[in-house]
Each structure stands twice: as C-alpha cells, then as structure tokens.
C-alpha cells in the first residue's frame, strides 16, 4: 500500500498533467481559430467582389462587357488582375471619357475603397497581377545609381532619360513620370498599360523596380531641379545641342555680319 501511495504522489505527475492540458488547448486553438479567421476573410472577400461587380456593371460594362469579356469598344478584362484596375482607375484613365489613341490621366472618379472592390471583382474573373504591397514599391534604401542604369536601358527610349515623357506613333505618347506615385509606377511596370510593354518580376525583379522608382524620385526631386539654370525641358543632350547650335551659330553669324558692315563702312570713309 505504501508503494502505491508513493506512486500516486510522484512529483512529476502534476507536470505531466499540465503539459497534456496545454497540448490539448493548443491543438484545439490551432484547429478552430484559423478556420474562423479564414472564414471571415472569405466572407469579406465575397462582399468586396459583390460590391465591385455592382460598380463595374454601372461604370464599366458598357465598354468591357457584362462579364468582362470585352466588346468592340473595350478589351477583355479577364486575367488583367487587380493591379491593372488599381492603376487605370486610380489614375483616372478609366472610366474613359471618349475613344482616342490613348487614355489620358485625369481626376479620379472613384474612392480607393471602391477601386479596391472593383479590383477584387476583376481579379475573380481570372488570375492576374495583384496590387503590390507597400513593401514591394517602397524605394527606401534602394540603389539609385542602378535604377538609373535600368531606366536608361529599358524606359528612356519612350519616357526620356529623366521621365519627362515623349511622343510615340499613331497619336500615342509616353506620359511624364514626375508626379506619379511609387505604387502606380510599380503597377505600370507590372501590367504594361497603353503602349507600354510588360515588365514582370521575372524580367525586371522586385528590387530592380524599387531601384527604378528611387531613381525617378531622385531626378524629379526639388534638390535635383536644374542646379545650373535653365533645364531646357530636361530632354537631354539632343535638345541642349540643338539649343547651342541654333543660338550659338546665330550669334556668330550676327557678329560676322556686324563686323563686315563695319569694315565696309570704314573703307568707304
């Protein structure tokens, strides 16, 4: 009897019971808590899609079709992803006021919450690029010099080497990038709006995109604004060379004419 009593009073028994209780509690929490959170997220997403569909039907379906399949007045939106919606609607390019060679940037019609809802609906039609997070497009700590190299290699042909924009063919143009937010620059590279090619992360990595955004922020900042005087539109050596050639040569011709006139007058005297 003494031996049995001693076993029941073993000091590790309470510890074993406590550990077992903690394990059971943790298991039950892991089994049920994530499911509740996932269910709440699913419900919120479903509501956003429903609200987005209503907004889409009112403002977009006349051009893009009732199911986003596209019409003769607008391309299909199946598979363009939420990032394309956030860019096009978030910069005011959509809804389009009238058909033209290119959709211009204009005041935004919808709130950001409404844009997010429409983006959720379009994303439900087919897989596509998602709206980037702030961590993806925040240029803090990025390599500005490398961003300049990447921009001059991939973007300067259309946007000019400081992002001032430029004309393209058939009435299209590359817009200026001076007042474009980092998120919209990232989304433009990700989705390729208008005549712009797509630069997925497999071609231009997430870090490369950050470097490009940092470069544009640097060259268009106030501290970089023409420290030497007139910037001639920031269009680079071609415009500067033309300016120097036209006005420099013109000044030389004027001086030559003046000297010749003075010489002829002196001879007559």
Short structural description:
It catalyses: a quinol + 2 Fe(III)-[cytochrome c](out) = a quinone + 2 Fe(II)-[cytochrome c](out) + 2 H(+)(out). The protein contains 11 helices and 2 strands.
Description:
- There is one protein chain.
- The protein is built from eleven helices and two strands; from the N terminus they run ααααααααββααα.
- By secondary structure, the chain is mainly alpha-helical.
- Among the domains are: 36-130, Cytochrome c-like domain (Cytochrome Bc1 Complex, Chain D, domain 2, Orthogonal Bundle), CATH 1.10.760; 132-224, Cytochrome Bc1 Complex, Chain D, domain 2 (Orthogonal Bundle), CATH 1.10.760.
- Helix 4 (81-90) crosses helix 9.
- The longest helix has 48 residues, at 12-59.
- The radius of gyration is 32 Å and the shape is elongated.
- It starts with a helix and ends with a helix.
- The mean pLDDT is 85.
- The cytochrome bc1 complex is composed of a cytochrome b (QcrB), the Rieske iron-sulfur protein (QcrA) and a diheme cytochrome c (QcrC) subunit.
- It is found in: Cell membrane.
- This is Cytochrome bc1 complex cytochrome c subunit.
- Keywords: Cell membrane, Electron transport, Heme, Iron, Membrane, Metal-binding, Repeat, Respiratory chain, Signal, Translocase, Transmembrane, Transmembrane helix, Transport.
What is the CATH domain class of the domain at 36-130? Mainly Alpha
Roughly what percent helix? 55-70%
- With helices defined by DSSP (H or I, 4 residues minimum), what is the helix count? 11
Strand segment tally:
2
* CATH superfamily descriptor of the domain at 36-130: Cytochrome c-like domain
* CATH architecture call of the domain at 36-130: Orthogonal Bundle
CATH fold assignment of the domain at 36-130: Cytochrome Bc1 Complex, Chain D, domain 2
Measured on Cα atoms, how large is the radius of gyration? 32 Å
What share of residues are in beta strands?
under 5%
Category from helices, strands and their pairing: mainly alpha
> Could you give the distance between the termini?
147 Å
Mean of the pLDDT scores? Answer: 85
Order of H and E elements: HHHHHHHHEEHHH
Task: Identify the overall geometry.
Answer: elongated
The neighbouring-strand order within the major sheet is 1-2
In this structure, how is the largest beta sheet organized? 2 strands, antiparallel
EC number: 7.1.1.8
Membrane topology: Multi-pass membrane protein
Catalytic activity: a quinol + 2 Fe(III)-[cytochrome c](out) = a quinone + 2 Fe(II)-[cytochrome c](out) + 2 H(+)(out)
Domain Cytochrome c: 47-126, 142-220
């Amino acid at each position: 009897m003494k031996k049995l009593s001693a076993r029941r009073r073993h000091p590790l028994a309470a510890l074993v019971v406590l550990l077992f209780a903690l394990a059971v509690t943790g298991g039950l929490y892991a089994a049920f808590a994530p499911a509740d959170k996932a269910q709440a997220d699913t419900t919120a997403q479903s509501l956003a899609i429903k609200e987005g569909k209503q907004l889409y039907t009112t403002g977009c379906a006349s051009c893009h079709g009732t199911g986003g399949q596209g019409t003769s007045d607008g391309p299909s939106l199946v598979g363009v992803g939420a990032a394309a919606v956030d860019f096009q609607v978030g910069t005011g390019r959509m809804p389009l006021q009238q058909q033209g060679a290119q959709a211009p940037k204009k005041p935004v019609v919808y709130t950001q919450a409404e844009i997010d809802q429409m983006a959720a609906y379009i994303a439900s039609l087919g897989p596509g690029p998602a709206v980037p997070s702030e961590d993806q497009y925040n240029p803090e700590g990025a390599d500005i010099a490398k961003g300049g190299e990447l921009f001059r290699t991939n973007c300067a042909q259309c946007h000019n080497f400081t992002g001032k924009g430029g004309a393209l063919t058939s009435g299209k143009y590359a817009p200026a990038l001076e007042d474009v937010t980092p998120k919209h620059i990232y989304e433009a590279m990700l989705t390729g709006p208008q005549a712009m090619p797509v630069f997925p992360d497999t071609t231009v990595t997430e870090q490369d995109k950050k470097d490009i955004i940092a470069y544009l922020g640097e060259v268009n900042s106030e501290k970089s604004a023409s420290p030497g005087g007139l910037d001639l539109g920031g269009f680079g050596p071609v415009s500067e060379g033309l300016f120097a050639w036209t006005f420099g040569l013109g000044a030389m011709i004027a001086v030559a004419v003046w000297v010749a006139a003075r010489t002829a007058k002196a001879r007559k005297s």
